[in-house]
């Protein structure tokens, strides 16, 4: 698989990473044994960037990724680039959260993540969400101290504004910004992608398949009761029906080229900018293998323009999160 750089001085990683969140929470029930097999297959396919966070499953996801690394020994550890995050604090069984960016919390959260992952260094450590009461300079300074101590390899920010990125980068180089980016969530195109390119910062696109809606195969009514998409505005009522018509057009576009809708959506992201790294989440090996083939898909300028026109930012109905999900997200 082609490779891309995590920041100007960060490691090279696969052009497609793996989002691990759904293996622990938010997308219905999961199975650790099955997840471990999927993680192993991802590495076999050349995926080296594994994305987790301390809030996913309240530590379970980091423990799962740590178990995967440990089972492969030092050889696997050398291959895997681990990205995790801090900042979201919530209680078990609750979606509502508060945001903690205090330097003391960052240091404690880092130690806890290191223990759960079973590693001596977190390769990429993100501020998951922003608390504006804490100056970003203090956050970047605390992260820089963890880099100097050898506990963190590179630092990242998630769902921040361009101004926040620039202020943080002035204190310590920011290797990556992670935000939602896909055919139906194109906010990063209004300035963040250009700022990242200017600063030598990678842009990591989470939910690149619109939480599976863009695949055209998702049956919302069949989702489990504990699947948070049941309460997502884009998956509900008239918005769902409107967005389904957009995805039907995407499906026809893909079928005409012998591709899946997911492969087209991922290839579109890879063609957008050379510093964009999508991290689709896959729990099943057939989906993972299909997604991986997107790295070899070529889209010409005409195809890219057609997709851009199909999914203009104002063509999608519904907010990308319920109100509680926007806590800590900067615009």
Strand order of the largest sheet: 3-4-5-8-9-10-11-12
Which CATH architecture is right? Alpha-Beta Barrel
Oligomeric state of the chains present here: single chain
What is the CATH domain class?
A: Alpha Beta
Question: Which structural class do you get from the secondary structure elements?
Answer: alpha/beta
Residues in β-strands, percent: 5-15%
Largest sheet data: 8 strands, parallel
Count of alpha and pi helical runs: 10
Gyration radius, to the nearest Å? Answer: 19 Å
User: End-to-end span in angstroms?
Assistant: 33 Å
Q: What is the CATH T-level topology? A: TIM Barrel
- Residue stretches low in confidence (pLDDT < 50, at least 5 long) are none
Shape: globular
Within CATH, the superfamily carries the name NADP-dependent oxidoreductase domain
Report on the architecture of this protein.
There is one protein chain. The chain has one domain (3-326): NADP-dependent oxidoreductase domain (TIM Barrel), CATH 3.20.20.100. A hairpin with an 8-residue loop joins strand 6 (88-89) and strand 7. The strands form 3 sheets. The chain has an 8-stranded parallel sheet with strand order 3-4-5-8-9-10-11-12. It has a two-stranded antiparallel sheet with strand order 1-2. With 331 residues, it is of the alpha/beta class. It contains 10 helices and 12 strands. The longest helix has 20 residues, at 60-79. Helix 3 crosses helix 4 (136-148), helix 4 (136-148) packs across helix 5 (162-171) and helix 5 runs parallel beside helix 6. The model has no long low-confidence stretch (mean pLDDT 94). It is 39% helix and 15% strand.
């Amino acid at each position: 698989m082609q490779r891309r750089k995590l920041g100007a001085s960060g490691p090279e990683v696969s052009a497609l990473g793996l989002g691990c969140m759904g293996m622990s929470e938010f997308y219905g029930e999961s199975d650790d044994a099955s997840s471990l097999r999927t993680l192993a297959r991802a590495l076999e396919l050349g995926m080296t960037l594994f994305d987790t966070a301390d809030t996913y499953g309240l530590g379970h996801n980091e423990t799962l990724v740590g178990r995967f690394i440990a089972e492969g020994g030092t050889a696997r550890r050398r291959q895997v680039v681990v990205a995790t995050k801090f900042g979201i604090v919530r209680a078990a069984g609750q979606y509502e959260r508060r945001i903690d960016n205090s330097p003391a919390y960052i240091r404690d959260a880092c130690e806890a993540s290191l223990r759960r992952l079973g590693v001596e260094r977190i390769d990429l450590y993100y501020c998951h969400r922003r608390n504006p009461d804490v100056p970003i300079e203090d956050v970047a300074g605390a992260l820089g101290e963890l880099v100097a101590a050898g506990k963190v390899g590179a630092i990242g920010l998630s769902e921040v504004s361009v101004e926040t990125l620039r202020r943080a980068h002035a204190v310590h180089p920011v290797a990556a910004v992670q935000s939602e980016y896909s055919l139906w969530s194109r906010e990063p195109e209004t300035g963040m992608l250009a700022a990242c390119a200017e600063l030598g910062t990678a842009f990591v696109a989470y939910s690149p398949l619109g939480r599976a809606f863009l695949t055209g195969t998702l049956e919302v009514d069949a989702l489990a009761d504990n699947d948070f998409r049941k309460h997502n505005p884009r998956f509900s009522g008239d918005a769902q029906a409107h967005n389904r018509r957009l995805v039907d057009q995407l499906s026809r576009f893909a079928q005409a080229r012998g591709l899946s809708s997911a492969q087209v959506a991922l290839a579109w992201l890879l063609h957008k900018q050379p510093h964009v790294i999508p991290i689709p989440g896959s729990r099943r090996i057939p989906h993972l293998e299909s997604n991986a083939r997107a790295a070899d898909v070529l889209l010409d300028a005409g195809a890219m323009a057609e997709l851009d026109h199909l999914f203009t930012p104002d063509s999608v109905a519904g907010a990308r999160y319920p109100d509680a999900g926007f806590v800590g997200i900067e615009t």
